[in-house]
Design brief:
The protein has a domain at 40-103: DNA polymerase, domain 1, CATH 1.10.150.320. 33% of the residues lie in helices and 7% in strands. It is built from 4 helices and 4 strands; from the N terminus they run αββαααββ. The strands form 2 sheets. A two-stranded antiparallel sheet has the order 1-4. It has a two-stranded parallel ribbon with strand order 2-3. The mean pLDDT is 80.
């Protein structure tokens, strides 16, 4: 009986496509350029950072109200920000100076062969 139940479970997983070795392609993250001042940026500016949403931006603001950032590395003290996320954001983080962060326009989507699709002519 247990073996039959296990086989049914495996069949269900395979029929849902969860057993497929190929993972679905990840959508590209936000592409940004410039710097963000962790001590002065607004929630909307913090939301521009890749992997940072409204809740994470609010946590950054709450943290800096209690303890202003003296180094960008202190971002890992904020819930939801570990070493990996910090390493991805590091090129855009500062604790002084102006916030110049801006989102770049989306790149052309790659085709199935991995080449960029040609731009539409106007």
């Amino acid at each position: 009986m247990k073996q039959a139940m296990a086989m049914v479970a495996v069949a269900a997983v395979l029929s849902l496509g969860l057993g497929n070795a190929e993972a679905a392609p990840r959508k590209p993250g936000k592409q940004v350029s410039g710097m963000i001042n962790l001590n002065q940026a607004s929630a909307q500016q913090l939301d521009l950072l890749p992997g940072v949403g409204a809740k994470a931006a609010a946590r950054i603001i709450e943290h800096r109200k209690k303890t202003p950032f003296t180094r960008p590395e202190e971002l890992v003290q904020v819930k939801g920000f570990g070493k990996k996320k910090y390493d991805r954001l590091k090129p855009h983080l500062a604790v002084a100076g102006p916030t110049t962060l801006r989102q770049l326009p989306p790149a052309e989507a790659p085709t199935e062969q991995g080449r960029a699709a040609p731009a539409a002519k106007r």
